[in-house]
Amino acid sequence: MRHVVTLIPGDGIGPEVIAAARRVLEASGAELEWEVVEAGETALQKCGSVLPSEVLESIRRNKVALKGPITTPVGTGFRSVNVALRKELDLYANVRPVRNLPNVPSRYQGIDLVVFRENTEDLYAGVEHTVDEDAAESIKIITRKGSERIARAAFEYARKKGRRRVTAGHKANILKLTDGLFLRCFYEVAKDYPEIEADDRIVDNLSMQLVQKPEQYDVLVLPNLYGDILSDLCAGLVGGLGVAPGANLGEEAAVFEPIHGSAPKYAGQNKVNPLATILSGVMMLEHLGENEAASRVMEAINAVLAEGRYLTYDLGGSAGTQEMADAIVRRLE
Ligand code: NAD
Q: Is 204 in the active site?
């Protein structure tokens, strides 16, 4: 079956890692056709908008996209295109698997957990205002609908993948109304999954435990902000941002992207690790039902990692982005 996929190269290192992933996915055996659209700084320069309507139209039409990272100015400038995309398409579940890969240097072994981050509300709703010169406020929004559907997504995943436990992270001891609602919804949804253990941790304690005993966690479910922060921490447990993939899932569409940003200081240097984007592509193949192609890419990645000859700088090697992708493509041919 032929799949039309929206392809967003993005900013900074985005075009390089997307080009690498595209070549690998094309060699996977799946029949893919790309519809390339620009978003972010690149789109702003070309057509005067960071999120042209054709981007949303393309994703709505194809229902699936592979996306490179997009730069968001810090403190000033336009609002995050990533946040806008997730809100516009109601991509409410941000799924970030965290797993050790062969030959990837890491402080821990035996890590295999998945972070479910709520992707549309919390402090990322962007309801912020200036009170006066010396004060500003931001409103944290948590709803029953948002909390129930992310909890359900995590439990459904656990059931499908035969996982044993889902842990909610929160700060309901302090934020009794917002995080309190998130936690209540979590336990209400958990009743529909009696075979799966459900428990919770206050997010500061969870952070410490993830550093000390990460192997004891299985599936984590968190509101947006904690999920954003802890999923980067989790990426650090297994080798860093260069190997951390992600998916943004909703009822109508799915957008796959590495969890790392546009790393502007490395842009155009053919230096960064393409694996996070390639692994996001593997998640996309599985989503499309192309399980055989996904397995083939995973085998090729594992073989290249085990061989250890074509690794990027973050994995202790000196290969460039495209050389590492070439090595994976050769294993697929
Ligand atoms: P970043 O993830 O871009 O980079 C932080 C550091 O991580 C880099 O300096 C590099 O050392 C390492 N790194 C990242 N990707 C790597 C890779 N593929 N291989 C090897 N090392 C890698 O984070 P940042 O510098 O905080 O953010 C830069 C920009 O990206 C900001 O504008 C931010 O808003 C944006 N951003 C976008 C997304 C997204 O599009 N989904 C996500 C996060 C950040």
A: yes
